[in-house]
Amino acid sequence: MNLWLWAAAGLLTCVIPCGIASFRGSAIERLLGLEMMGIVTTMFLLVMSEAMGNPNFYDLALTMSLLAFGAGIVFTRFLERWL
After folding, report:
1. CB 18 within 8 A of CB 37
2. Number of domains, the chain
3. Which structural domain, as residue segments, surrounds residue 29?
4. CA 16, CA 18: separation in Å to the nearest integer?
5. CA distance 27 to 11
6. Residue 39 near residue 48 (C-beta atoms within 8 A)
7. pTM
8. CATH code (residue 9)
9. 3-class SS of residue 59
10. What is the pLDDT of residues 32-48, one digit of tens each?
């Protein structure tokens, strides 16, 4: 196991508090949990692509970052209806 896989495991454990914040708390806390989970998942994909030695997977991380941004905007759009 190399250092990149240890870093990926550490990033994967950071998803747990983000998931808890996404399922519990107020609407603003759920939005923050969603945005933070998108950032952590993007970093996880970047670290895993470096750990596997396949730079072709960087596109997957880039796509994930764009989709996470879009999901945050959609969530905010629906959130402004309820607040």
Report:
1. yes
2. 1
3. 3-82
4. 5
5. 24
6. no
7. 0.81
8. 1.10.287
9. helix
10. 888 899 899 999 999 99
